[in-house]
Amino acid sequence: MGLFDFFKKDKESTEQQESLDKGLEKSKASFFDQLSKAVVGKSKVDEEVLDDLEGVLVHADVGIDTTVKVIKRIEERVARDKFVSTGELDRILREEIAELLAENNTGSAILDRPDTGAYAGPFVVMVVGVNGVGKTTTIGKLAHRFHAAGKKVVLGAADTFRAAAVDQLIVWGQRVGVPVISHGMNTDPASVAYDAVKKGLEMQADVVIIDTAGRLHNKINLMNELTKIKRVMQKVIPDAPHEVLLVLDGSTGQNAFLQAKEFTRATEVSALAITKLDGTAKGGVVIGISDQFNIPVRYIGVGEKMTDLQLFDRHTFVKSLFSKK
Q1: Distance CA 199, CA 204 (A)
Q2: This prediction's pTM
């Protein structure tokens, strides 16, 4: 790596941190406001403080089950250390939450894929999620991320039941500079996916990203549709898709939990992207979903810019969430 590359990477890292800090401002403000009320007039972490802290975490949409885990960890720590001051509470919370998230690996599968020197075929990502969560926008930002990293990308517009989704993906393809395979509206989604994977193989693409219908009207129909798409893609690449990415809207809080539950029942979700965290005080939902579903949160959306879809790093996220700046 040359000196310019080093400084460029360092600058990008700083910009991403600033973007993350800004994107979590509402969550931080709400969280610390509630936390301050929970410890006011208290010098040590006692049962009353822990009860109030439980309410703070639930209010931040961390989720009941994950909140219970966090509280139990802090109780054990208080018992072990004999005395824990309320001034230490945010540091202890940060440490325990980061440790809780440690079980789930994060990172970008395709960017971490080993370079063997021989073309192994495209890495196929099938993207699922209900309408309105930012699914197609997330795909566009993913395409930008991979393209900027020097990867060849192909997009497949297989959400054919919604004209806006097809048109939107085509616009994203033009904006990023990557090809989009589209058969238009009301066409067979599996056929689009087949042609996209085939195109990816022909042009020796690194990544093929397939958009799918954003409907959760019936689990059986959803399962059948996604299974058909998988089966058809496997005629071209036997082990496709290599990743099923579920996109969730973080601003919906507990509703995001319900969507995650439904989609994980309907198909084998292997990674999560949680969007719209910049517009909500419910940033804790990332912690709860990552913990409860034991599925890695791969990306988080913290703004409108193409670069505001970030790789999720538990240490950076928790550090930003607990930063008082």
Answers
A1: 8
A2: 0.88
